[in-house]
Amino acid sequence: MPLLHQITPHTAYVPGANNLGVILTGDDGAIAVDTGLDKDTGRMVRRALDEAGLQLRAIISTHHHADHIGGNEYLVRNLPGVAVYATRLEAPFIENPRLEPIYLALGASPPAALQTKWLMAKGVSVHHILDGDAVEIAGVRLEIVALPGHSLGQIGVAFDGVCFAADGFFGSEVLAKHGIPYAHDVAAQIASLERLATRDERFFLPGHGELTPRSNLEAALRANRHAIERASRAVRDALAEPGDTLAIARRVQKTLGLTITGLPQYAIFVSAVAAHLSYLETQGAARLILTDEGAVWRGGS
Ligand SMILES: [Zn+2]
Fold first, then answer.
1. Range of 270's domain?
2. Are both 157 and 52 inside the same structural domain?
3. What does the angle CA 76 – CA 78 – CA 79 come to, to the nearest 5 degrees?
4. How much distance in Å is there from the Cα of 97 to the middle of ligand 1?
5. pLDDT tens-digit profile of 11-46?
6. 190 inside domain
7. Ligand 1 center to residue 154 CA distance, Å?
8. Are 241 and 157 in a shared domain?
9. Are residues 245 and 154 in the same domain?
10. Rounded to the nearest whole angstrom, what is the distance from the C-alpha of residue 150 to the centroid of ligand 1?
11. Is residue 160 situated within a structural domain?
12. pTM of this prediction exceeds 0.85
């Protein structure tokens, strides 16, 4: 079976734990929308395009998370003339991937356990900054859909009836596995779900999950909304007693019954809990106070 699965005449993807989007430019050229975790997924993109007789012209990185940019370095190194595109807010992290484990380590030089390929890809230069809601690449005009929240400046890409939605929403199996859909800014994440709901493409491809026809989009977005609200409730309930961020995270982990298998997953989980604490603070439902025990969260006044 070919690696590349056609979606519409000018769009395709390589399905997997990370779905890799491909836009066909019509002159045997292709644009990759994200490149997966590492050089193996980069190699897979290359093979998929080779099989289909396509040449990679550009990579659009939707956001800086290692499982979306990990194949960039392999592709840029092995294929001549491939230009990398990203938003202004995401580009510094794509060029300096050490920033991801650094922010997960409270800004410190990260411990060895966080310097893993799950959190730290190989960096590449970003050649073009994506500003605004459209871009012309390799002769085709693509719509850029702002989907911040999961990450600072995440985008989706819309073309030929398909919206490549990155981690703007997750498939149901992924939601069940993660407990909290990872967020940097929960309010923005919810607003991005609402933005996706207004789109009228025929297909929506999440970074993780099934290709979703328009008719199933509402249900998928609703499931994401519910997962975010469930996480927010769990964090709010954990504030019944004051506690620092890690104590709150421990309570939330228990409430949601989450098994966390490694330090990278733990760091991501704590970061997502912290995002919900900040979100609750903006709603007046949480306050951060300095005590003799350090910085402690309390429920709203
Ligand atoms: Zn992500």
1. 234-299
2. yes
3. 70
4. 13
5. 999 999 999 999 999 999 999 999 999 999 999 999
6. no
7. 9
8. no
9. no
10. 6
11. yes
12. yes
Residue 251 Cα to ligand 1 middle (Å):
24
Residue 241 lies in a domain: yes
222: which 2 tokens? 């609703």
Q: What's the CA gap between 205 and 213, in Å, rounded?
A: 9
Measured CA to CA in angstroms, residue 107 lies from 63, 98, 222 at distances of 20, 11, 34
Q: 247 and 148 in one domain?
A: no
**300 CA to centre of ligand 1 in angstroms:** 30
Of residues 2, 1, 98, 79, the one with CA closest to residue 35: 79
Read off the tokens for 288.
């951060």
pLDDT of 216 reads: 97
What is the Å distance from ligand 1's center to 12 Cα? 20
Between the CA of 138 and the centroid of ligand 1 the distance, in Å, is 26
Q: pLDDT tens digits, residue range 40-81? A: 999 999 999 999 999 999 999 999 999 999 999 999 999 999
β-strands 29-33, 55-60: how paired?
parallel
- CATH number where 74 lies: 3.60.15.10
Please give the average per-residue pLDDT across 223-232, as a whole number.
97
CA–centroid distance, 241 to ligand 1, in Å, is 31
Residue 139 lies in a domain: yes
Q: How far is the CA of 167 from the centre of ligand 1 (A)?
A: 5
Q: How many whole angstroms from 240 Cα to the centroid of ligand 1? A: 30
